[in-house]
Amino acid sequence: MLSTSSPSSATASSARPPRGPRPRWFDGFLHLESASGILLLTATVVALVWANTSWPLAYETLWHLPLGLTLGPWAWRGQLHFLVNDGLMTIFFLAVGLEIRNDIHDGELSDPRRAALPVIAAAGGMIAPALLYLMLNFGRSGQAGWGIPMATDIAFAVAVVGLLGKRIPPALRVLLLALAIIDDIGAILVIAFFYSAGIDGFGLLVAALGLVAALLFQRLRVNSALVYVLPGVVVWWGLWRAGVHPTMAGVALGLATPARPWRPSETSPAVRVHRRLEPWVTYGIMPLFALANAGVAVGHVSLGGNARIVAGVMLGLVVGKPLGIFTASLVAVKIGVSALPRGVGWHGILCIGFMGGIGFTLGIFMVDLAFPSGAEEAAGKLAVLASSVVATVFGLLAGRLLLRPRPATLTSD
């Protein structure tokens, strides 16, 4: 689940209002650390079955349902899939940004040497997969797909971590979140500079103005969360106009949220907002995201001459990701520029290395950019799906075999 182990989080947890009566089995399920992973993986299976049975058209029709909004002369037209992936997932990224912000304030990331580790690990986890892909496809028709195995799917990686429950130390979870965000930012930059016409400067200016407005409200100690919706929408629209994935607006706003309470008797804004968002993100947005994106039709895919594309993507995600993340982390720690999080050993780094190979959503997005249509596109999507499944299995096995459960006294809510 999206939770931190900081003292401020504990304070927030104790301040939660009492909840009404619920079935005992349901309340117990919600308190499972693996509950989010179970829900998200269930939604994934449902989507895959739905898209590969006799009703695949119904699946596509649902998520391409047209939506629109008109305000005077201004009109917006989109699809339900866009609303989920670019709208609701912004809230997920906001929660992730808030969790990292809390940890930067009083957790593992407050130490500069430990904070450097996810940056270095993410760089290794991007370079190694791209190189392995190019080893098989350089100079061939599939060369354009070198960016496909570079990105980690944060939502699915978080779900796999949830399935491991108490075996994952809180510091290791935060490391994975930070690594995956940096990884995705790097992938977005790759998209902007290598798979698109570039970044629109006006959009970046609008996003910056929205962020400045949010910071100004914080400076004035505006306490109502609703007030921040407008600058949040401005940041989102600016990034969308700029050609940057607009969900990064959630990360930016989360990292900019104050992690210190404005009054001694209160919890900090970052903790308070994160606590309110957590159940919506964990039990609503993430499963809906899986349902909308996991429905890849794998039947009737003819590899033909695209076996190198499939092999390159799978080699990059399943081998390149853990190899790059682990090797970069090992070198950084050994030469003294970084340090492992407290309570995290090399087995834990290897475990999140495998999870880094879960490249589902952004990987499929990059397939669409690299191979707009035809057999290469189908082969690329099948490779991303298969690689993500294999990386999930390897990550779970590594966690079960290499990591020990935390004592009950150290369990965070």
List the helices and strands and how they pair.
Elements: H1 7-14, H2 24-30, H3 35-51, H4 56-63, E1 66-71, E2 74-79, H5 80-106, H6 112-137, H7 154-164, H8 170-194, H9 201-219, H10 229-242, H11 248-256, H12 269-293, H13 307-334, H14 346-355, H15 360-370, H16 375-402
Antiparallel strand pairs: 1-2
Helix pairs in contact: 3-7, 3-12, 5-11, 5-12, 6-8, 6-13, 7-8, 7-16, 9-10, 9-11, 10-11, 13-14, 13-16, 14-16, 15-16
What does the model show?
There is one protein chain. The chain is mainly α. The protein has one domain (34-199, 243-296, 303-406): Na+/H+ antiporter like domain (Na+/H+ antiporter like fold). Helix content is 66%, strand content 3%. The chain is built from 16 helices and two strands. A hairpin with a 2-residue loop joins strand 1 (66-71) and strand 2 (74-79). Helix 3 runs parallel beside helix 12 (269-293) and helix 14 packs antiparallel against helix 16. The longest helix is centred in the C-terminal third of the chain and has 28 residues, at 307-334. 49% of the residues are buried. Residues 1-20, 25-30 and 409-413 have low confidence and may be disordered.
Approximately how much helix is present in the residues? 55-70%
The description of the largest β-sheet is: 2 strands, antiparallel
Largest sheet strand order: 1-2
CATH superfamily: Na+/H+ antiporter like domain
**Basic shape:** globular
Radius of gyration: 21 Å
List low-confidence stretches: 1-20, 25-30, 409-413
| Structure classification | mainly alpha
> Total helix count?
16
Salient structural properties:
single chain, 413 residues, mainly alpha, Na+/H+ antiporter like fold, two-stranded antiparallel ribbon, 16 helices, globular, disordered N terminus
